[in-house]
């Protein structure tokens, strides 16, 4: 799975591409994970549509060129934001857990619709997938989450009681920028 | 790291919290309020140095802190002991964060603002409108005997807290934040601590001050502002929350970001308003969480509204949805 994740991220050596493709083609589990990873990637880029499965299959079959390892785009991180469109077809992917990086999670209940007064809004099925996302995480606005956190810490609930202690939250995150 | 965290959570300790009856009948105890006051005072008057562990979500981080109160003001240094070295230096009202991995220095200084911290203990009495505050047992933390204080939220718009304060000095040595299911979402605890006595001033020296000279500097340049005048307001606020400050600041490389802070006296929520390049897509509305911190983003007209708070998801979403622009 780790290899697959690296592959999705375009981070495998060129020689491994063919063998990875063969593995994905022959292993149903890997195929499904591959599908999910791309769905998440697309969701993060805000490009989700309900016929994604067929698109991924079509891509696998017809467009091997798109599977070639990509260089990381310079500038903005790829995982810009976990988009949460209202379309029911994409409700399945609402929880993403970053492992190499700070543990930010999309909230399934909130993501899948407005909060009902009685809390009855039924969240869609939740799929938790680990992603290695070494780049800084930016929100839709193009600003890194950490910038918001840093600006907010002065007012954090316990800053009056702990002084600068809550700032530990903001420095916590930086490691993701270099570790892998 | 994650397993260490879950192992350390020691569910047995929270059993009293799991009994709904205790929360329902708990009334705020005046002596518990006095203890909160003691904690605030201790933060402002004590000098100390030590190491604490911070858990949020599945992350655990060890940090060294030195806090020295001098006639000229408070100086403080936080140094991350795990992973890449990072540090935060606070001098009076200015906070400087050195991030070597991205070779960035972040500076947060509030011009024309009351001194740090902004959430002040005048509001302590008001806290009992939103929390049931009670005193618990005396327990030991890091070798110190500590008074425990519980803050049970009266609604779902804020988290619960349990605090451990040194019996002798009032210093906060441990704190846990609970969600509505009484699960710990965040906690910190000192593992080693020296209160008062001879504290080496060298411990306050920034380690990166020399090598950071060529680094990128991001200065918040925060100044007081009237966001209502600019057309921004909140249609509604969760019970007990008041606007405590309004600013304009720089976030990362984006200047002119509106920043409104709401607080119920303990929990704080920041509302950031920044102009979008073009009209934002509604599909990019969403929420992320880390430990006790929730972040909710939604577009309003040609702006992004980002709400950040150590409050439940419902709370940040409620506030974000209440933001409106009228001009």
Report the sheet-strand fraction of chain B: over 45%
- Describe the main β-sheet of chain B briefly: 19 strands, mixed
How would you sum up the global shape of chain A?
A: elongated
List SSEs of chain B in N-to-C order: HHHHEEEEEEHEEEEEEEEEEEEEEHE
- Helix tally of chain B equals 6
Largest interface: A-B, 55 and 91 residues
Label the structural class of chain A.
Answer: mainly alpha
State the order of secondary-structure elements of chain A, H for helix, E for strand.
HHHHEEHEHHH
- Class derived from helix and strand content of chain B: alpha+beta
Q: What percentage of amino acids of chain A are in beta strands?
A: 5-15%
Query: Which strand order do you get reading across the main beta sheet of chain A?
Result: 1-3
User: Cα-atom Rg of chain A, whole angstroms?
Assistant: 18 Å
Strand tally of chain B, please? Answer: 21
* Average predicted confidence as pLDDT of chain B: 84
Overall body shape of chain B: globular
Number of strands of chain A: 3
């Amino acid at each position: 799975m780790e290899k697959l994740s690296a592959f999705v991220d375009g981070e495998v050596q060129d020689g491994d591409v063919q063998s990875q493709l063969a593995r994905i083609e022959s292993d149903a589990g890997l195929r499904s994970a591959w599908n999910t990873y791309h769905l998440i990637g697309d969701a993060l880029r805000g490009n989700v549509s309900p016929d994604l499965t067929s698109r991924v299959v079509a891509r696998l079959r017809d467009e091997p060129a798109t599977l070639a390892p990509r260089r990381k785009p310079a500038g903005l991180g790829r995982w810009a934001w976990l988009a949460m469109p209202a379309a029911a077809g994409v409700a399945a992917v609402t929880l993403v857990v970053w492992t190499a990086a700070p543990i930010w999670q999309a909230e399934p209940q909130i993501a899948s619709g407005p909060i009902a007064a009685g809390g009855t809004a039924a969240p869609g099925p939740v799929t938790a997938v680990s992603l290695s996302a070494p780049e800084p995480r930016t929100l839709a606005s193009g600003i890194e989450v950490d910038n918001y956190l840093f600006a907010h810490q002065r007012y954090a609930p316990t800053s009056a009681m702990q002084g600068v202690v809550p700032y530990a939250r903001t420095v916590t995150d930086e490691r993701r920028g270099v570790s892998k | 790291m994650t397993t260490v965290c879950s192992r350390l959570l020691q569910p047995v300790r929270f059993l009293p919290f799991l009994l709904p009856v205790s929360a329902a009948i708990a009334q705020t105890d005046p002596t518990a309020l006095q203890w909160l006051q003691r904690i605030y005072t201790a933060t402002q008057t004590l000098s100390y140095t030590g190491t604490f562990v911070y858990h949020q979500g599945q992350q655990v981080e060890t940090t060294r802190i030195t806090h020295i109160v001098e006639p000229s003001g408070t100086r403080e240094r936080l140094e991350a002991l795990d992973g890449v070295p990072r540090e935060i230096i606070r001098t009076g009202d200015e906070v400087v964060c050195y991030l070597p991995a991205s070779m960035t220095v972040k500076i947060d200084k509030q011009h024309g603002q009351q001194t740090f911290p902004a959430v002040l203990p005048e509001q302590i009495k008001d806290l009992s409108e939103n929390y049931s505050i009670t005193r618990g047992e005396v327990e030991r933390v890091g070798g110190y005997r500590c008074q425990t204080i519980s803050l049970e939220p009266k609604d779902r718009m804020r988290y619960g807290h349990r605090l451990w304060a040194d019996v002798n000095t009032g210093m906060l040595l441990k704190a846990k934040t609970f969600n509505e299911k009484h699960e710990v979402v965040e906690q910190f605890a000192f593992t080693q601590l020296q209160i008062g006595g001879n504290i080496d001033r060298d411990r306050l020296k920034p380690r990166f001050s020399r090598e950071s000279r060529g680094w990128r500097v991001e200065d918040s340049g925060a100044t007081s502002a009237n966001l209502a005048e600019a057309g921004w307001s909140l249609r509604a606020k969760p019970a007990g929350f008041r606007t405590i400050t309004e600013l304009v600041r720089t976030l990362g490389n984006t200047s002119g970001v509106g920043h409104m802070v709401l607080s119920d006296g303990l929990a704080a929520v920041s509302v950031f308003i920044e102009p979008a390049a073009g009209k934002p897509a509604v599909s990019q509305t969403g929420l992320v969480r880390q430990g006790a911190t929730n972040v909710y983003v939604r577009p309003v007209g040609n702006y992004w509204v980002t709400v950040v708070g150590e409050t439940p998801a419902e709370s940040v979403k409620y506030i974000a949805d209440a933001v409106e622009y009228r001009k």
